[in-house]
UniProtKB/TrEMBL annotation:
This is Thiazole synthase. It comes from Luteimonas endophytica. Its EC number is 2.8.1.10. Residues 13-264 form the Thiazole synthase ThiG domain. The active site is at K112 (schiff-base intermediate with dxp). It is an enzyme of class 2 (transferase). The gene is thiG. It catalyses: [ThiS sulfur-carrier protein]-C-terminal-Gly-aminoethanethioate + 2-iminoacetate + 1-deoxy-D-xylulose 5-phosphate = [ThiS sulfur-carrier protein]-C-terminal Gly-Gly + 2-[(2R,5Z)-2-carboxy-4-methylthiazol-5(2H)-ylidene]ethyl phosphate + 2 H2O + H(+). Its main location: cytoplasm. Homotetramer. Forms heterodimers with either ThiH or ThiS. It comes from the Bacteria.
Amino acid sequence: MTAFTPSDDPLVVAGKSYRSRLLTGTGKFRDLDETARATAAAGAEIVTVAIRRTPFFNNAVGQNSGEPSLLDVLPPDRYTILPNTAGCYTAEDAVRTCRLARELLDGHNLTKLEVLGDEKTLFPDVVQTLKAAEQLVADGFEVMVYTSDDPILARRLEQIGCVAVMPLAAPIGSGLGIQNRYNLLEIVENAGVPIIVDAGVGTASDAAIAMELGCDGVLMNTAIAGARDPVRMARAMALAVEAGREAFLAGRIPRKRYASASSPVDGLIG
């Protein structure tokens, strides 16, 4: 029997196939070397960057002369760079940031939209998110959108034309794990675009649970960058995402209240 490989079951976003279902962020690492090593250990092919905070190019503002840039250690010919609108609190600001990213990245249309509504919880402002999504889709962007775990809102964002919907599992950076599995399940079961958990994952078991629910992928940053050993945690997350996907495809046994013998009882000797 031929062994299964992730390439047999790709993640497809905006018409492009990816072997890895783990997407990673680039913030909070100690330095660019750790960023590169953790990203490689995760096996990530899509990496998200905060366009308003990240020095993309050599000699960018806030960067010492001669220092490498993010694109030096995560080259676009190897990774799909996913600019995000982190730090935006209005639709206008988010749209402006996406247009800036498209200019910086030579017409790159794939973007991650997030419009925040509260500085403490970093929950999304869903009204402003809808407004920005409509404008960006009309402007030719391929929008992957961070949102709440509301199934109705997820459906609306898909109807607008977003190429992936990214509901939170818990507040950004909280590490609380999957707090809303029934909402996520409802979103997954009614979606026609990839559903990628974004925010709240703390450890490998959280990533596995998200994938076992049928989510198409997981995006994380703090869970890896904030670990005692980010590179090792990145590898753990990659294994968890793959295992969770395999378990989902295999189909778990039903839950029962009572024991069920692993070995058949018919024909026992004596």
